[in-house]
C-alpha cells in the first residue's frame, strides 16, 4: 500500500483507505492512530508536489462538509445517518456551509455557530437571499459573506437595531 495511493504504477491501494475499510467494514482494527491520517496525507501530498483532492476518500477536506438541507439536518441530528466514522477519527472537522441547496434548519444552525440567534421566520426570509447569492457566485458562501448578508438583512428588516455576533463582541471577525 501507499499513502494517498501514490506509487510507481497505477492501481496502488491507498493505505488510509485500506486501514479504514478494514476497521469499519470488516471489524479488523490494526492499531494505527488514524487521527493522523489527514496530516500524513497532507505531508505526502506536499512532499510529492501533488494536490490532495478535496473529495478524496477518508482524508479529503470536503469529506465532512454538508450544504444540502436534507444531509446537513440528517447528520446534525444523527451523524451515523451519513457517516461511517467520526470526522475526528481521521483528523478532519465537520462543517455546514450555506449555498443554493441550504434550507431553513441549516441556516439557523450555521448562523447560531457564527454567534447569531435567529427565528425560523428570519431563516425562511434569508433562505431565498442566501440561495440567490450562492447561485450568482456559483459557489457556497464564505462565513464572512453569511455574516454580511445577515447584517444587511437585519438592517433592512429592523431599521436601526444593532446586532452583534460573538466574533464582533470579541473584537474579531
Automatic annotation (TrEMBL):
Cited InterPro entries: Aldolase_TIM (IPR013785), LeuA/HCS_post-cat (IPR054691), PYR_CT (IPR000891)
KW Ribosomal protein (keyword) present: no
Composition-biased stretches (Basic and acidic residues): 155-173
Keyword Transferase: yes
Segments for region (Disordered): 154-173
GO molecular function: transferase activity
Pfam families: HCS_D2 (PF22617), HMGL-like (PF00682)
Record keywords, A-Z: Transferase
Domain Pyruvate carboxyltransferase, chain residue ranges per copy: 1-38
Protein name: Pyruvate carboxyltransferase domain-containing protein
Species in which this protein is naturally found: marine sediment metagenome
The organism's taxonomic lineage, starting at the top: unclassified sequences, metagenomes, ecological metagenomes
Amino acid at each position: 500500500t501507499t499513502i494517498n495511493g501514490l506509487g510507481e504504477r497505477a492501481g496502488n491501494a491507498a493505505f488510509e483507505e485500506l486501514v479504514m475499510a478494514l476497521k469499519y467494514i470488516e471489524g479488523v482494527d490494526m492499531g494505527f492512530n488514524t487521527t493522523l491520517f489527514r496530516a500524513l496525507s497532507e505531508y505526502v501530498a506536499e512532499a510529492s508536489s501533488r494536490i490532495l483532492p478535496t473529495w478524496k476518500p477518508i482524508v479529503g477536506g470536503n469529506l465532512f462538509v454538508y450544504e444540502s438541507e436534507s444531509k446537513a439536518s440528517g447528520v446534525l441530528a444523527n451523524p451515523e445517518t451519513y457517516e461511517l466514522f467520526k470526522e475526528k477519527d481521521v483528523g478532519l472537522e465537520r462543517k455546514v456551509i450555506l449555498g443554493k441547496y441550504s434550507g431553513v434548519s441549516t441556516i439557523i444552525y450555521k448562523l447560531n455557530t457564527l454567534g447569531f440567534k435567529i427565528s425560523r421566520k428570519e431563516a425562511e426570509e434569508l433562505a431565498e437571499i442566501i440561495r440567490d447569492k450562492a447561485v450568482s457566485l456559483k459557489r457556497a458562501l464564505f462565513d464572512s459573506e453569511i455574516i454580511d448578508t445577515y447584517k444587511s438583512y437585519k438592517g433592512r428588516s429592523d431599521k436601526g437595531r444593532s446586532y452583534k455576533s460573538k466574533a464582533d463582541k470579541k473584537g474579531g471577525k
